[in-house]
Design goal:
The protein has a single domain (8-255), classed as NAD(P)-binding Rossmann-like Domain (Rossmann fold, 3-Layer(aba) Sandwich), CATH 3.40.50. The protein is globular, with a radius of gyration of 17 Å. It has helices at 17-28, 45-54, 69-83, 106-116, 118-134, 156-176, 194-197, 204-214, 223-234, 252-255; strands spanning 8-12, 32-37, 59-63, 88-91, 137-142, 181-188, 244-248. The protein is α/β, with parallel strands linked by helices and 257 residues long. The chain has ten helices and seven strands. Bound molecules: nicotinamide-adenine-dinucleotide.
Amino acid sequence: MFALTDKIAVITGAASGIGAATARRFAHAGAHVVLAAYSPDGHDVDRVRADVAAAGRQAMVVETDVGQTPSVDALAAAALARFGRIDIALANAAIARRKPSLELDDRSWEQTLGIDLQGVWRLFRAVLPAMRDAGGGRLLATASTAGPFEAWEAHVHYSAAKAGIVGMVRSLAAEVGPLGITVNAIAPGIIETPQTLDSVNSLGAGGIAETGRTQPVRRIGKPEDIAAAYHFLASDDASFVTGHTLLVDGGRMLIRG
Ligand code: NAD
């Protein structure tokens, strides 16, 4: 069920949080995984690499800055040189930086949009030719509830980027569907990861715990909850699902006024 046997998956932001959980999940489903890691953030990608290897799959770590086109092009080239094809590309890397809108200058805007929105496009663009030549593939991106589904104060740049992913996914899905390529996003709710545990830029541990007490499923979201949904979307079983942004939020959007 949802087998990913010998699929080649490239994941950005793979050293932590949702990306790391998805890399582990894909490996257990049979995929070899190219782990794009950004070392300035200090996450331990070797643990993820070891877990993929322990699942009997190949792991390859590629240092990548999704804010830089040559870096993302080099990631795709390295994956193709090693494995010969890319079946699944998950553009998951992002930053969230709290910035009141009255202080939101070009530099902050461009940094966040450059990583969170253009970074997604850089990965998609880099892998599209190989997917076209192979006759298909899965393009996936991590959006958010913030932007597509709700407001997040002092995060106008982040919200704009995440809403932009929804539009990108729709239009690209229509364009590359005839090539056998599907394009989908997931909009996670509040998930316990380094991003949300950052109390300066996000909710912090207390805010996450409060969400867990109040949202319909009465627990905090885990990276594995998002990985499970990505597993389906990455599989052959999802070949009729495209252009979609899947809300995975424990029902939080049902009750947020
Ligand atoms: P995280 O901070 O652990 O993951 C973000 C990853 O992106 C990190 O591994 C980081 O090193 C990487 N990254 C940052 N800048 C980069 C760059 N320039 N180049 C390459 N990689 C870079 O947090 P997470 O929650 O696992 O985030 C994963 C995705 O989920 C992000 O797109 C985030 O916006 C999204 N998201 C998270 C939540 C949540 O509640 N945690 C909710 C909605 C959306």
